[in-house]
Amino acid sequence: MDKAFEDEFIPPMTSIKSGNSVEITADLICHTIQIVNICMVGNPHRPDPWFLVDAGMPHSAPDIIALAEQRFGSRRPRAILLTHGHFDHVGAIVELIEHWDVPVYAHELELPYLTGKADYPPGDPQVAGGMVSDLSPWFPNHGIRLQGQVKALPTDGSVPHFPEWRVIHTPGHTPGHISLFRKRDRSLIVGDAFVTVKQESLYKVMLQIKEISGPPKYFTTDWQAAKESVKRLAALAPAVAITGHGIPMDGAELTQALDQLVTEFDRIALPEQGRYVH
Description:
The chain has one domain (3-268): Metallo-beta-lactamase, Chain A (4-Layer Sandwich). Helix content is 25%, strand content 18%. The chain contains 9 helices and 12 strands. The chain has helices at residues 3-8, 61-72, 93-100, 111-114, 131-135, 202-207, 223-234, 251-263, 265-268; strands at 21-25, 28-33, 36-41, 51-53, 79-81, 104-106, 150-152, 165-169, 178-182, 187-191, 240-243, 249-250. α7 packs antiparallel against α8. The chain is globular.
């Protein structure tokens, strides 16, 4: 990690719990809502626009709005970007749109699940790994109906209104899954392309035991695409990675963990069995 980036870092990222925020840089925070992370991107000390990445768990809109007002005052976000449409990443999206009246962006391949045209495949308990996997068939997998409120991201990888950020298409967990990357400081917002906790295990999720893992196994349907997506992200040599689940990783720990995930993907990430494992 270069010195300029280190100087922007606030204290070491050692633990994260529901309701807590970790300030990665002056304009990037990770906030945990129950079992999932959202990001707010923008400097609260400048009048620049800011954007929200993902919309957390159901019924979390009041908490997200309160955090936004604490950080940005009356400034609403310029946009909301969705890494994908699983229930734990879009839980408060309808309420947030009603409150802020801002555009929502997602990859074009994710739009069917965000406009009520398609449902996600159900969770797969056959991947084993813990109680979360066992319970996954009961997790909501239906699409939501944002209709004209959601727009497709530009196909050139740009992020509307935020030229420093780039969209990285990282399918596998879902067809239109995306990650976001800023080259200036090599900040990576991963979504669920990989995570830093064994999301299948309720025990490890509750204790937030940090370890590199692939995308959550019980909802991932294309493992070859997921593997290629991890390779694509590792090639960016990120300095810090904020994942959809787990504690942010940075520096040498992140580099070594990603290298290991790339070289040992089949052992670390790929389930031994499952309805989506081919």
